[in-house]
Q: What sequence folds into this?
């Protein structure tokens, strides 16, 4: 008799707790997303999964001036994904930006050349018509 009474009491408690259950939710600001998984009738299990999105930023472009038969600055350090622009500012003469895998071709005064460095490494370049003009891009 006590056993049946105990089981009946336990069943009433379970039914009452199941009828009054309301899942908890939280309001949060972007970029965090919260989801609550469904719960079982007898055992309450609440699991929250939070996903935080990290915005992807593009590195700022970098300018190298070609002036006075030199690259200014001659050595730069940039993060991977950076676009470097060379601006030819020597009037009356032609220059190039020639490296391993990239070549501007002939640049006249006022011309520019852009190259995006996607991988880490050290990249040397020079002017094919003035071999004493040397530059280095170090990509981190």
A:
């Amino acid at each position: 008799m006590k056993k049946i009474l105990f089981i009946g009491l336990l069943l009433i408690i379970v039914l009452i707790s199941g009828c009054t259950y309301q899942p908890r939710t939280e309001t949060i600001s972007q970029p965090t997303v919260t989801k609550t998984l469904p719960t079982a009738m007898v055992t309450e299990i609440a699991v929250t999964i939070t996903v935080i999105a990290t915005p992807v930023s593009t590195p700022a472009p970098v300018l190298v001036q070609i002036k006075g038969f030199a690259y200014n600055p001659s050595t730069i350090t940039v993060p991977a994904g950076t676009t470097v622009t060379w601006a030819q500012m020597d009037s009356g003469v032609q220059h190039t930006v020639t490296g391993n895998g990239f070549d501007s071709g002939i640049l006249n005064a006022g011309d520019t050349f852009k190259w995006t460095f996607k991988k880490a490494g050290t990249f040397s370049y020079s002017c094919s018509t003035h071999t004493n003009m040397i530059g280095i891009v170090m990509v981190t």
